[in-house]
Structure formats: C-alpha cells, structure tokens
Amino acid sequence: MMVTTVVGSYPTGIKVQTEEDVKKAIEIAVADQEKAGVSIISDGQVRTDMVGIFAMNMPGYRKEGNRYKVVGRIEVPDKPATVNDYLFTKKLAKAKVKGIITGPTTMAKTSQVEKSSPYKSNTDPELIYDIAYAQAAEARALAQAGADIIQIDEPFFSVDADLEVGIKAVNIITKNIETPAMHVCGDIRPIFKKLLETNMAILDHEFAKSKNLEAMDKGLIEAHGKIIGYGCIDTTSNTIETVDQAEKTIRAGIEKIGKKNMWIDPDCGMRMRTRDAAYQKLANMVEAVRRIG
C-alpha cells in the first residue's frame, strides 16, 4: 500500500492558550490521524501559525499585532521551537511522526523588515540565508529527537520567489535531515523542473483541484530520484470527497507519476476545515489508497 501522510496542520476545536491546551490539541490531532489510518502523521501544528512558532523563537523577530517584524539580525535560537511538541506526539503515536519546519523564503516574505535590522527588504538574500541557518538548527534538534522525515514548507516558492536564493537556503537545512521533504502549494508547473534540483527526497504538491499533473513526467522524476507527495484532497472546502472521487484522483496521478513514486496526502494543511470534515477527508483518502492496494 502507498504511504499516506498529511501536510501538517489539523483542526482540533481547542482554543490554545496554555501548555495544557497544546497537549489536549495534540492528543486530538494524533487520535484523529491514527483513527483515519494515516501512516505518517504530524503534531497537528496546533500551537500557533506556521511563521509565528519559529519567528517568536528567533532572536531578531518581534510581533506587533498580527505582523511579524524583523527588528535585528536573525540568529540561531538558544532552544528549538518544535521539539517538545514532536516528542509529545511521538510518545502518543503508534504511527511514524514527521517534523515540520517553515521555509526561509516563506518566513522572510511574510515578515515586515524594520529599519533597525541589517536587511534591505523581506526579499534580501542575507535575511533568507540567516533564517535558513536558524532553521537548520531546528532541523538538527528534530533529527536528534528522532525525526528522520522532516518537511520544509515553502508555499511562497510558487509566488514569484527568487528560486536561486530559495533553493540554496532550503539546501542549507537539508544537510541535517535523513529524509527531507518540501511542500510547495499553488501552481508549480512553471517551477517544477527547478524544484527537482533541490536536495529533497520528497516534493509535495497539490493535485486535487490544480493543473499540476501537467508538469509531471515519470522519467524525469525517476531520473532525479524523487518521490512526489500527491495532494488528492481539496483542503479549501469542507465538502468531503467520496472514496471513489479520491481513488479517481490518485489513479490519474499513478498514470503520470507511477505508483512507486508517490506518497498520498491532502493538498495542504487542514487548519481552516472543521474537525469532522478534516477527519472524514483523511479517512476517505486512506480507504481509497487501500482499494488501490
């Protein structure tokens, strides 16, 4: 059976304000993912948003309102941001647990750069590389905690990013990862060949509603030794795909990518969905994979 996984975030219905809330939310995320039959799970990314969890741990960042501001040089934090949540998840779970890190380009482009910092703008390569070195330390800590699969989230790679800088930055992080994966959502057709140049073992993209399948080439994927994380579940809606619909989407991918070259997951994180919808979407996805065998 093909590997099934998630992109990251999961809706738990818990308003997280305390460490006890975090634990309760992780317990729900783990229980739902395992009940659905997912083979590689996450901690649900329940603590806060994908930028804030790292930015608020890095020297050089400050939060004002809903904005993350770079006010000084970004430095390697004294302690990792996600290892405690990873270890708690690992303790609860029977399934394999992956670590998840937000990529340097995405962190930079969602930040506001202040004049007090040494950076020219939020696209300054120096800023992106400094964030990469900070996130490389996070990856090392996750690996030491037992995470052999660590995913780097770079949604902004598909939104007019400097890929020369961006790829160099994520490759700084992958040096510390046994099985590095990268999630890039959006339209990756213009950049897919460039993404094949990264040091990733797994490239994860959305296919449920996009035209990204047009960019897939089995021979090219195999020549670069990549696995494609194949998003087959729409995460923009609470409408639940039937098992038949999920199976049809997966089989379309098998035709162009090859079954052995695919891991199966939703298109993106599920934070914005209801808990009931998120669970049933995952359960139907796993059942579709079981049917295919």
Provide structural commentary.
With 293 residues, this protein is α/β, with parallel strands linked by helices. The chain has one domain: TIM Barrel (Alpha-Beta Barrel), CATH 3.20.20. 39% of the residues lie in helices and 15% in strands. It is built from ten helices and eleven strands. The chain has helices at 19-36, 52-55, 83-92, 104-109, 125-144, 163-174, 192-195, 218-223, 243-257, 275-292; strands at 40-41, 61-64, 67-70, 96-97, 99-102, 111-113, 149-153, 179-183, 202-206, 227-231, 262-265. Strands 5-7-8-9-10-11 form a six-stranded parallel sheet. β10, α9 (243-257) and β11 (262-265) form a beta-alpha-beta unit. It is globular. The N and C termini lie close together (5 Å). 47% of the residues are buried. Its cofactor is Zn(2+). This is Methylcobalamin:homocysteine methyltransferase.
Query: How many angstroms separate the termini?
Result: 5 Å
User: What is the C-alpha radius of gyration, as a whole number of Å?
Assistant: 18 Å
Fold-level CATH name: TIM Barrel
Q: What's the architecture, going by CATH? A: Alpha-Beta Barrel
Report the biggest beta sheet as strand number plus sense, adding barrel if it closes: 6 strands, parallel
Low-confidence stretches: none
What's the CATH class label?
Alpha Beta
Cofactor: Zn(2+)
GO molecular function: 5-methyltetrahydropteroyltriglutamate-homocysteine S-methyltransferase activity; zinc ion binding
Protein name: Methylcobalamin:homocysteine methyltransferase
Keywords: Metal-binding, Methyltransferase, Transferase, Zinc
